[in-house]
Amino acid sequence: TSSFPLTADAAMATGKAKFVGNIWYDGNAPSKYADYWNQITPENATKWGPCEPQQGVYNFSQAKAMYNYCKTNKIPFKFHTLIWGSQYPNWLNNLSGTARKTAIENWYKAAAQNFPDAEYIDVVNEAMPGHAPFPFKNDIGGDNGLYGTGWDWIVWSFEMARKYFPNSKLLINDYNVLNEWSCLDQYIPVVKILKARNLIDGVGCQSHGLEKTSAANLKSRLDRLAATGVPIYISELDLDIADDNTQKNKMQELFPVMYEHSAVKGITIWGYLQGRTWIPNSHLLRSDGSERPAMTWLKQYMAKVPGEDVPVET
Ligand code: XIL
Predict the structure, then answer these.
(1) 86: CA distance to ligand 1 center in Å?
(2) pTM summary value
(3) Which among 35, 94, 96, 275 would be 20 to 30 A from 9, CA to CA?
(4) Contacts of 205 (CB under 8 A, 6+ apart)
(5) How many CB atoms lie within 10 A of CB 300?
(6) First-last CA distance in the chain
(7) 158 and 170 in contact (C-beta within 8 Å)?
(8) Rounded to an integer, what distance in angstroms lies between the CA atom of residue 312 and that of residue 255?
(9) Distance 1 CA to ligand 1 centre (A)
(10) Confidence band (pLDDT; 50, 70, 90) for 32?
(11) DSSP tag of 237
(12) Cα-Cα-Cα-Cα dihedral sign, residues 267, 272, 277, 283
C-alpha cells in the first residue's frame, strides 16, 4: 500500500524522481507544511530586494531558517531568484554600469556563500518580452554583446551562476509559457541558447493562470518544450477558482498531464493556505485547516501513482 505521499519523511526515504513542493511563506514554518509538501521555494525571502536592503548589508535570516529546515529534513530548496525585473533593491537604480555589474556579482557571491548547496536556483525570472525583464540588462551584456546570441544578458547571468553555484541545478523561470503558444515560442530559443552552452539544468514554468488552459493544449506545450531536452519544472502552479468542485475538476484535468509527463521533474504549487495565497482563490486548505476538494483529490492521486508516490529528484 502506498502511504500518503507528500511528506518530508517519505521523500527522504525513497528518492523517487519527482517532487511536489510549495512555497514557504515568510516567517515561521507554516502550518501543515510537512504534511503535504516535500520541496520548498521561499515566497519572498530569497529575492534580492529583501536580502540586500542596503548595498553590502545582507539579511538572509528568514531564508536561512528555511534552508536549514530543508537540510535537516533532506528536502530540496529552491533559491528564487537572482536576476529579476521586480523586487530588486532600490539602491541599484543609483549605480552606473560597471558598479552595477559588480554589485550584481557581489549579490551572487553573497547568495552562494549562504546557500552553497541549494538544489535549485531560479537564475533569471520573467525575462520574456512584455514580462518583467531585468531593467539593467545592458550592464550585463545586453541583447547582443560579447556572445551575439540575442540574449547575452541572460547568458552572462547563467555563466556567473555556474561559476558561483557549481553544485546547483540552474533554472530559467517564466509565466504564461504553458498558457500561450506565442510566449512558449519566445521561451524555447532562449532555453536552446543556454543548453548549447551547458548553462541550464531546468526550465521553469510558473503556471499562474493555468486554469485557463485545456489539458490537450497543456500536453502539446509540454511536449514542445520537452523537445529541447531540458527537464521541466512546474514552478508556481495555482488554480484560481472560487468554486470548490470546479477547482477540483480542473486539478483532476491538469495535474496528471504534468505529473505523468516524462520531462516534468517537479511541480511546485504557489501557496496553499487561505488568506495567504498571492492569487485569492487558489488556496487548497481553508483557514480552519480543512482541505478543499482539490487538495483531497491531490492526496488520493499521489497515493495511487505507482512507484512515484514519495518523490525527490536525486
Ligand atoms: C509574489 C509573492 O507571492 C507575493 O507575496 C509578492 O508580493 C509578489 O511576488 N512570479 C514570481 C513570484 O516569480 O516571485 C511572485 O511572488 C509571483 C509571480
Answers:
(1) 9
(2) 0.93
(3) 275
(4) 173, 174, 175, 177, 178, 225, 232, 233, 234, 235
(5) 10
(6) 23
(7) yes
(8) 17
(9) 38
(10) confident
(11) E
(12) positive
Mutate which of 23, 26, 44, 282 for ligand 1? The one with the most ligand atoms within 8 Å of its CB, which is 44
Q: Residue 310: name the closest of 119, 118, 75 by CA.
A: 75
Does residue 22's CB lie within 6 angstroms of at least one atom of ligand 1? no
Sorted by where each begins, the domain ranges of the chain are 8-304
Cα 278 to ligand 1 centre (Å): 7
Give the distance (Å) from ligand 1 centre to CA of residue 306. 33
Query: Between 29 and 8, where is the model more confident?
Result: 29
The predicted-structure confidence for 67-124, as pLDDT tens digits, reads as follows 998 888 788 999 999 999 999 999 999 998 999 999 999 999 999 999 999 999 999 9
- For every residue of 159-199, DSSP letters joined together read HHHHHH-TTSEEEEEESSTTT-HHHHHHHHHHHHHHHHTT-
Q: Which CATH number applies to 8-304? A: 3.20.20.80
Question: What's the sign of the alpha-carbon dihedral 25, 31, 36, 40?
Answer: positive
What ipTM describes this predicted complex? 0.99
Q: Which residue minimizes the CA distance to atom 12 of ligand 1?
A: 43
CA dihedral of 258, 264, 268, 272, whole degrees rounded to 10? 20
Query: pLDDT per residue over 145-188, tens digit each?
Result: 999 999 999 999 999 999 999 999 999 999 999 999 999 999 99
pLDDT of residue 28: 64
* pLDDT confidence band for 27 (50 / 70 / 90): low
| Ligand 1 atom at shortest distance from the alpha carbon of 125 | 13
Position 6 confidence tier, pLDDT thresholds 50, 70, 90 = very low
Residue nearest atom 7 in ligand 1 by C-alpha distance: 278
